[in-house]
Amino acid sequence: MERTGMEQSHPAGAARARFNVLRWSAYAAALLVALSWAFILLDGNSGFGDLFRERTWQNAGQFVASLAGAGSGAPSPFVQAARWRETGQLALNTLAMSVLAMGIAGAGALVLLMPGARNVSDGTLGGAPSHTGRVVYAAVRIFYTLTRAVPELVWAMLIVFFLSPGIIPGALALGIHNLGIVGRLTSEVVENLDPAPARALRAAGASSPKVLLYGVFPQALPLFLTFLMYRWEVVIRTTVVVGFLNAGGLGREFRLRMSWFHYDDVGLLLVWYLLLVIAVDVLSAQLRRRVRWD
């Protein structure tokens, strides 16, 4: 009876502990917010006061007007069909870069799907534990950490040293970084799968490829595609930043036009970029919905 009472009191104690952690976390977050605002308001070099100066908003209005092509004295690129075609080609290059990047990330994540899961190396998903499997698992996890720890911009800076500027360096930089992210997420999906189907296949004498095809893929593939689509939405935004380093697409042209103070051209590039992001977001949402329905 005493043991039963202890077991009944344990959930209440655990709930109280979780509540205390949440409460103190809220206190700490409120304190950090207060300290941050105090630093902004008390530091004379923070630039916070510039937000309330009339000159700041005048400059902002002039810049927005220049993005729309006002006051340049030359024909606006918004009314030039040739400029729309040229920048549209750049938008297609940016889209191609993002698709190629996600192809690299997705293919790498699929290849490392099983070696990167702990329950494969320790035999939980069926089969016998293997020392080699544990070593491979550790190597794959370290690889995931390294690839996602280095930002896409740094990868692009390294890759453009030995590859000519273009779509390929940007796609490689984005693909390598997102391989670490998608691979880690997918491996954790495999670690949380129901092991019963894979164990049943192992007990029936199925080979590892068949276990992967019939016991793992049906459960892991929908979430894998969902993660891939989410990262594609992020990548299409990051392509412009990577393009600053001569990686091609809208980003390279954006940097050049900003350097030449051609703000009306910058406005046109932003329009294409907005259209591209909206199109990818809509397509990604449709594909994710289709995956969930299937």
Helices, strands, pairings?
Elements (H helix, E strand, L loop, with lengths): L1 H41 L11 H14 L13 H31 L6 H4 L9 H19 L2 H8 L7 H25 L4 H8 L4 H40 L1 H11 L3 H31 L1
Helix pairs in contact: 3-7, 3-9, 3-10, 3-11, 5-7, 6-7, 6-9, 7-9, 8-9, 9-10, 9-11, 10-11
Could you provide a short overview of the structure?
The chain has 294 residues and is mainly alpha-helical.
Descriptive report:
- With 294 residues, the chain is mainly α.
- The protein has 2 domains: 2-52; 77-293, Orthogonal Bundle (MetI-like fold), CATH 1.10.3720.
- The protein has helices at residues 2-42, 54-67, 81-111, 118-121, 131-149, 152-159, 167-191, 196-203, 208-247, 249-259, 263-293.
- The longest helix has 41 residues, at 2-42.
- The two termini are 50 Å apart.
CATH class categorisation of the largest domain: Mainly Alpha
Discrete helix count: 11
Task: Give the rounded overall mean pLDDT.
Answer: 83
* Secondary-structure element string: HHHHHHHHHHH
Radius of gyration: 26 Å
Quaternary status:
single chain
Q: How much strand?
A: under 5%
Label the structural class: mainly alpha
The helix content, as a percent range, equals over 70%
Distance separating the two termini: 50 Å
* CATH fold descriptor of the largest domain: MetI-like fold
The CATH H-level homologous superfamily of the largest domain: MetI-like
CATH architecture label of the largest domain: Orthogonal Bundle
Note poorly predicted spans: 1-7
Number of domains: 2
| Largest sheet report | none
Any idea what the shape is? globular
- Number-wise, the strands total 0
